[in-house]
Design a protein that fits this description.
The protein is mainly β. It is built from no helices and 31 strands. It has strands at residues 11-15, 20-24, 34-36, 49-54, 59-63, 68-71, 79-80, 86-87, 96-102, 105-110, 114-118, 124-128, 137-145, 148-155, 160-164, 172-173, 189-197, 200-207, 211-215, 223-227, 234-240, 243-248, 252-258, 263-267, 277-283, 288-294, 300-305, 312-315, 324-329, 334-338, 343-346. The strands form eight sheets. It has a five-stranded mixed beta sheet with strand order 8-12-11-10-9, with no helix packed on it. Strands 3-31-30-29 form a four-stranded antiparallel beta sheet, with no helix packed on it. A hairpin with a 2-residue loop joins strand 13 and strand 14 (148-155).
């Protein structure tokens, strides 16, 4: 087997004004740096992988067909979670839309307000998040605020719920959701992420029509909504390198190191044209953002950037017949999952 070489150029940049020192590592990967998972548990049924999460070592994948799988070798081989290891299996199972990890827990959410959680990614417990039912949970997040663990679930009609210290609940409805009233037709919340700004924990939610909101206390109030300067739908938001990056339709990229004060910067990188951006991830080991997009013919494109401002991109059509729907970075590898149960892992 021929060895594939990826050349790294290491540049030391000194910012005199801020007295900060950064090691910037431009990476020029290609589709050849990724390899197919040979035993993907999602391939046989052609399942769409809707979420990937990791604690750094264990990786978890979920599908819209209700499968949960885990990997302990950074995405090379996978094992399906069977019903014997699921507590309180729900009738009809769960059509999962998202999964996350934080503060020692994996949390997955799906249609009808159904959810599941696990501490190790192997043994799971299922349940229903009452304030979200019967609407769909499209995004989940976990973080720490004021020495308490906060679990967030959000999705259709602007619904948001949170629980403190345990995913078992009780779950509390955010009564004044900035995305709309749960009794009416609120705007869809597509993504929520947790990050720390100057040592303080904060959740940022994004959704339809370029809107976002911020949660930074336990009152159940989310502050907002306002827009990031666009009416394009925001599909995903991530935190890394001391900044939040939100991406969406129309090649929308918005960056903020201070979302609580409504400060966002517009990025326009001609590498992508006007392609829609589907999801974004962050690799804390190499401090790089990974962006998932697609060509006009639907074939997937992957972008890499150290700061969210300057991107390099390449096609993944040789690995994915259709699209990529999820991305996560373990301590050693980047894992991508998509349509037809396809999964790949990086060198």
């Amino acid at each position: 087997m021929k060895k594939i070489k990826i050349f790294l150029i290491i540049i030391l940049i000194v910012f005199v004004n801020t007295a900060c020192y950064f090691t910037n590592v431009p990476i020029y990967p290609s589709a050849a740096a990724f390899h197919h998972v040979q035993d993907s548990p999602f391939r046989q049924g052609g399942e769409r992988i809707t979420g990937l999460a990791t604690d750094g070592d264990i990786a978890v994948a979920v599908s819209y067909s209700g499968t949960i799988a885990w990997s302990e070798d950074h995405g090379i081989s996978w094992h399906t979670v069977d019903t014997e290891t699921i507590v309180n299996t729900l009738p009809g199972g769960i059509r999962f839309n998202a999964v996350t990890w934080g503060e020692g827990y994996f949390l997955a959410g799906g249609d009808g307000g159904k959810a599941a959680y696990s501490k190790d990614g192997k043994i799971w417990q299922q349940g229903v998040i009452g304030p979200m039912s019967p609407k769909n949970i499209l995004t989940v997040a976990i973080g720490e605020m004021r020495r308490q663990i906060v679990f967030i679930a959000a999705g259709n009609d602007g619904r948001i719920a949170y629980a403190l210290n345990s995913p078992e609940g009780p779950w509390t409805h955010v009564s004044n959701s900035p995305f709309g009233d749960r009794h009416n037709h609120g705007e869809t919340i597509n993504s929520v992420v947790y990050g720390k700004i100057k040592g303080s924990g904060i959740f940022v939610a994004v959704g339809e029509n370029g809107k976002y909101a911020v949660l930074n206390d336990f009152s159940g109030e989310m502050y907002g909504p306002t827009t990031v300067g666009t009416r394009q739908n925001l599909n995903s938001v991530i935190f890394g390198n001391e900044r939040f990056i939100s991406v969406g339709d129309g090649a929308t990229i918005r960056i903020s190191a201070d979302p609580g004060n409504y400060r966002w910067t517009t990025i326009r990188d001609h590498e992508f044209g006007m392609r829609p951006f589907l999801t974004i991830g962050y690799n804390p080991n190499i401090e790089y953002f990974i962006l998932i997009s697609k060509n006009n013919d639907g074939t997937p494109v992957v972008g890499f950037s150290p700061n969210g401002e300057n991107w390099s991109a390449f096609s993944m059509a040789s690995h994915f017949v259709r699209g990529i729907s999820a991305v996560v970075c373990t301590r050693k590898r980047i894992i991508l999952g998509g349509e037809d149960g396809m999964m790949v892992y990086s060198n």
